[in-house]
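To: structure desk
From: M.T.
Subject: fold request, one chain
Message: Could you run this one when you get a chance? Sequence is below, nothing fancy, just the single chain.
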Amino acid sequence: MSEIEIHGMVADGFEVVREEFAAAVAEEGGSGAQLAAYVDGRTVVDLWTGAEVTGDTLTGVYSSTKGAATLVVALLVQDGVLELDQPVARAWPEFAAAGKARITLRDVLSHRSGVIGVDGGLTADELADDRVIATRLAGQRPYWRPGTACGYGGFVSFAIVGEVIHRVTGRSLQEIFEERVRTPYGLDIHLGLPEALEDRYREVLPGVADPEELAAFWAAVPGPHSITGIGYGLNSTPPLDQVAFINTRRVRALGQASAGGVGNARGLAGMYAAAVSGLDGHAALLKPDTLGEFSMLHSTGGDLVTGAAGQYALGFQAKGLRYPFLSAWAFGHGGSAGSEAFVDPRNGIAFGYTRRRFSFNWSYPEHDRLAAAVHSAATAS
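Reply: Done. Structure tokens follow.
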């Protein structure tokens, strides 16, 4: 393979990050990746590589979208518009059906509601639209007693949140994100990609694996009607094709709040910098009390859908448990195509990473080495 060309900049003292990025993308195969980082609102890393990829290129970020959606919730809680411990059904009476009357917004955000999908599954077309998902979820019985366990609703959890927001404010979660987060801070993270920006989108690519490796992996994957299968949308007919999903224009246009977001590394890192440190002269989005509430550990010790990797703050993944070199208050959200994003409020590090190619087994070891390199450089400087 020819030498992979790395573009962009790193601040003084962050040269090791460029080296780690070059090594990581070489191992992946060079299909395209971006890495960005801020420290206290200042850009310290802005790198990219791959055919047809620039620092401005947009791609599907899947569940990193949940971090953007959670920021909207945090702002509305901060404003006093939403109450975390109020039952969802108070704003959305239909949701009380089938034993869901006591489920709160906090239960949903901490993945403890038991509502992770629907019997018979949701088609890719249905999963594109949060309002359609919400209609299907309203009559669904939880898959475990709410509050007794944690389980990740990969494609549906923020449709519940979005419906509550719509019932309370009369506006969509996506509209509020655009108005209060994306536009003021000039962020390249979109919950609903305008047609005018389609030329900047690059398709997510399928993973590549040795046929025997691939066969062994799929042989061990839980069945479509298992808890894991339901949580990942595999119980529909046909099972959801995650690669095709975000590469569908309708999905990007609607920007469903669990997995339909489009962005780049700059946008992801900048969003978390804006939340905690402020950006480009704008104040931080979250006040200390709000930050404390949403970065607090809520669901730990494993997840019925994802296993040991499922560790959550409120709406966000608990990144201090994922990366032990970060503080206990670090939070963010990754996505199944390989995006990763987080912020550590203690040291002001905000991190964003995207890649175009799925891993065939949803394993992304470069996250560890890149996060460690950024943290090491930031704390050394």
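Reply (cont.): The chain has 16 helices and ten strands. Let me know if you need anything else for the meeting.
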